[in-house]
Amino acid sequence: MSVQRSSEGAVVGLRASHADRDGVVDLLSAAAGDGMLTAEELDERVGAALSARTLGELAALTADLPVSSGLCREGEVKDVVRIEQQGASTRRGDGWVVPRRMEIRSEWGEVTLDLARAVITHDTLHIDLALRGGALKLVTPPGVVVETDALVAHYAKVKVARAAGAGDPAVLRVEIAGEVSFGQVVVRSPRRRFARRG
After folding, report:
1. Is there a contact between 48 and 61 (Cβ–Cβ < 8 Å)?
2. Cβ neighbour number for residue 131 with a 10 Å cutoff
3. Which Pfam families does the protein's record reference (predicted)?
4. What residues contact residue 34 under an 8 Å CB cut-off, 6+ apart?
């Protein structure tokens, strides 16, 4: 079997992982937020990204988007990250780089931000939230403080669990502002993993 490479050197025939697909969805969402894609184009490309099997299929979905447009390469710190979705789920997990600010617009979907597995480069994260239905879930290790005083809730639940080691010095302060209707904001500690006995 021959192996093809893209112009950036990626092996296009290799199988794509969940992280690869999520990364492309992030890029597409940012491009739509910057006005480079219409809502219809975004829906079409996100659907194709989520069903893509190879890195080559994913690369084709972002080939016409300029790198200089505020879409950054993996590992680079962004000032603002936008998530806009309807009836979908988004998760930031292993190794995602926490920006200074996030704008989250979600209807009847779920957004999970795992700060226990993130790369934290700033001392404050501002989240501007517009959530209708669904949930925003934050997984917070010791040293992450979450403030929800500026969050307005309509027929919604806001639950902030006290993290183990809450007396530790703050590494990151998360300030959530905006509105949540018919949904929930949940802040919890990472789940413990129990070792199997042989």
Report:
1. yes
2. 27
3. DUF1707 (PF08044)
4. 69, 70
Question: Which tokens is 123 given?
Answer: 């001392």
Domain residue spans of the chain: 1-74, 76-198
Q: Which two tokens stand for residue 34?
A: 């910057």
Distance of CA 34 to the CA centre of its chain: 17
Exposure of 140 by Cβ count < 10 A (0-12 exposed, 13-18 middle, 19+ buried)? Answer: buried
pTM over 0.70: no
40-44, 62-66, 95-99, 164-168, range with the lowest pLDDT: 164-168
